[in-house]
Amino acid sequence: MKVLVTYYSRTGNTEKVVQCLKEGLEKGGAEVDLNPIELKKEINILKGIWWSILGKTIPIKIKHHDVQQYDMIFLGGPVWVGNPFAAINTFIDVCDHIEGKKAVVFLTLSSKGAQSALEKLSHRFENRRAQVIDTFEFSTGPKGKSLKGVEMEKLVEVGRDFTLKW
Ligand SMILES: Cc1cc2nc3c(=O)[nH]c(=O)nc-3n(C[C@H](O)[C@H](O)[C@H](O)COP(=O)(O)O)c2cc1C
Questions:
Q1: Ligand 1 mean position to 80 CA, how many Å?
Q2: Residue of the nearest CA to atom 3 in ligand 1?
Q3: Which residue owns the Cα nearest ligand 1 atom 30?
Q4: What's the pLDDT at 63?
Q5: Pocket lining: 50 vs ligand 1, CB cutoff 6 Å
Q6: Is 146 a residue whose pLDDT tops 90?
Q7: Mean pLDDT over residues 135-156, rounded?
Q8: According to the model, what pLDDT value does residue 14 have?
Q9: Can you say how many angstroms the Cα of residue 152 is from the centroid of all Cα atoms in its chain?
């Protein structure tokens, strides 16, 4: 199974989550390509917040935007004021051959309660006729305190479980 993991990480939390997922997916025998999102231009935080609240997009640079060769695509990044950070939206809008793809959406946040943000991303995928097969959130805790030990081991298992289930 070939998997593409596209993600945005400004302060490194989502990056750590992605590394665990990758480890788990590979343990389960998947071939994983990582696809970090970079911003074309650094943006002011206030503008980023506002764009995220409005569900807008921010121009991005990515290595893979054609997902044809992948059996499953993951997309993740941080929650900003209750919404997916706007650059994550951009990937869904710009990627090619997304129709019918199995997609998994995940978000990181310092507290808990990303349900509405996950739903927004899922709807965006569904508008492009992708099939969202799962969503999950990972609470990093204050100052990223949960990004270690047993919590991270659980994430590796989450990655491996995807290969067993799908
Ligand atoms: C502008 C901004 C807004 C944020 N809003 C929320 C929020 O609404 N809820 C929450 O739990 N965490 C919020 N956070 C915390 C981030 O979602 C969390 O630290 C995330 O893991 C950061 O991911 P990254 O390190 O990959 O960029 C916010 C962070 C920033 C910078």
A1: 5
A2: 80
A3: 80
A4: 97
A5: no
A6: no
A7: 92
A8: 97
A9: 16
What sections of the chain are H helices per DSSP? 13-27, 45-53, 86-94, 115-127, 149-165
Query: What average pLDDT does this structure show over 91-120?
Result: 97
Beta-carbon count within 10 A of 124 CB: 21
Going by pLDDT thresholds of 50, 70 and 90, the confidence category of residue 37 is very high
Q: Whose CA is nearest to atom 8 of ligand 1?
A: 81
- The domain 2-165 having CATH identifier 3.30.950.10: the answer here is no
Site to substitute for ligand 1 among 80, 85, 112, 151, most atoms within 8 A of C-beta:
80
| Cα 38 versus chain centre, distance | 13
Exposure of 85 by Cβ count < 10 A (0-12 exposed, 13-18 middle, 19+ buried)? buried
**What ranges do the domains of the chain cover?**
2-165
Average pLDDT of the residues in 55-76: 97
What gap in Å lies between CA 28 and CA 44, rounded to an integer? 40
DSSP string, 130-159: -EEEEEEEEE--GGGTTSSHHHHHHHHHHH
**Measured in angstroms, how far is the CA atom of residue 106 from the centroid of ligand 1?**
13
Q: How confident is residue 61, by pLDDT bands cut at 50, 70 and 90? A: very high
For ligand 1, whether the C-beta of 81 sits within 6 Å is yes
